Amino acid sequence: MKRLRYIALFLLLLVSAAGMYAQEADTTAVPGGAVPADSTAAGNGGEGEVNVNELVFGHIGDSYEWHIATLGDTRVSIPLPVIVHSSTGWHVFCSSKITEGQEYEGLYIAKGGTYDGKIVERNAAGEEVRPLDISITKNVLGLFINSAVLLVIMMSCVRWYKKHPVEQGAPKGGVGMMEALILMIYDDVIKGCIGEDYKRYAPYLLTAFFFVLVNNLMGLIPIFPGGANVTGNIAITMVLAICTFVLTNLFGTKEYWKEIFWPEVPTWLKAPIPMMPLIEFFGIFTKPFALMIRLFANIMAGHAAVLSLIAIIFITVKAGAVINGSMTVVAVLFGIFMDALEVLVAFIQAYVFTMLSAVFIGLSRVKGHEAK
Question: How many CA atoms are closer than 13 Å to the CA of 248, on its beta-carbon side?
């Protein structure tokens, strides 16, 4: 699976390089380096060319609207509410007022620079600065939708159990699948990794598993209300990692902290230079950091790989019908394969995040060593 991931990342870099080269070639072909107004229709018999970089990285990134499709020259999208606090006070308006490059109430979306794609304003010196931005972006709306889906699934299971006593037998269908997943995580992961007081951590770990799983799966659905790259957003994975970090260290035992600041190693490794304590203390922060990066990178790479494969179809348009047709078949087959693989990855990443969180919590619950 790692080899497939490396191949997918290589394809992403290849597609990105080809897209940038194509854009540069189109620009330099015009005297003065200017891009003509009809450049998007050149070379495709009147059909607009696809900006590969925008296709791939536009999906991975966040936005102030939810783009659904482009039909000819019509862009079908759902505008989202913008909520910002700038130097002139609070502003609440629809994102459609600024998504086409307009400026509204002194606010606009930056093009390039440090705040590319973010809402900014200009200060007295004419510099772009970011206001306090709590807008409902695509990822935020996706987070709300996915959380609602998770609640509906769980409440449906609760309703089934209320209507069917245990004596009537094990559930079937979707409820049976949910019961199997819950028991697997509860018995094999939470109970097995934490130990005696595993019950106090079970609600968080079960919630984290299904939250990550639902968001991963919803991100694979190409049409609304799916497609938001929620768990491929480092802010989301950072919050999840911080929750694990807090639970791990807030309820750590005295033995856990003793092994960090005064581990059972030769004294010269602890004093006068506290080499091992520094390494152990640094490890407190590297564990949640690894959780954050692992989930973020795997989900983001999966989305980018699938989109990069599909983008090959548009890159090879100018190469002729034979090459384009052949690459279309290859891209579609590999895209289907990668989509199926990403369904497996969605479960594996949710499982790995939960298991590592349980392991880290279990290590913080270590008891004192018994004297021999």
Answer: 23
User: Which pLDDT belongs to residue 83?
Assistant: 94
What is the average pLDDT across 82-107? 90
Q: Contact, 14 vs 305, CB < 8 A?
A: no
Q: Which two tokens stand for residue 181?
A: 């997943």
Phi/psi for 23 (5° steps) reads -65, -40
Residues of the chain above pLDDT 90, percent: 37
Q: How many CB atoms lie within 10 A of CB 132?
A: 9
Q: Which of 29, 16, 140, 124 is nearest to 83 (CA)?
A: 140
Distances (CA, A) of 268 to 262, 263, 271, 282, 318: 12, 12, 5, 19, 68
> Which tens digit of pLDDT belongs to each residue from 62-78?
889 888 887 877 888 88
pTM, to two decimals: 0.80
Q: What is the DSSP string of 117-174?
A: TSEEEE-TTS-EE--EE----HHHHHHHHHHHHHHHHHHHHHHHHHHS-GGG----HH
Q: Is the per-residue pLDDT at 96 higher than 50?
A: yes
339-354 residues labelled b (16+ CB within 10 A) or e (exposed): eebbeebbeebbbbbb
d(CA 96, CA 26): 29
The CA-atom distances, in angstroms, between 139 and each of 64, 177, 217, 255 are 9, 28, 14, 41
Q: Report the candidate in 180, 188, 183 with the shortest Cα–Cα distance to residue 359.
A: 188
Tell me 188's DSSP state.
I
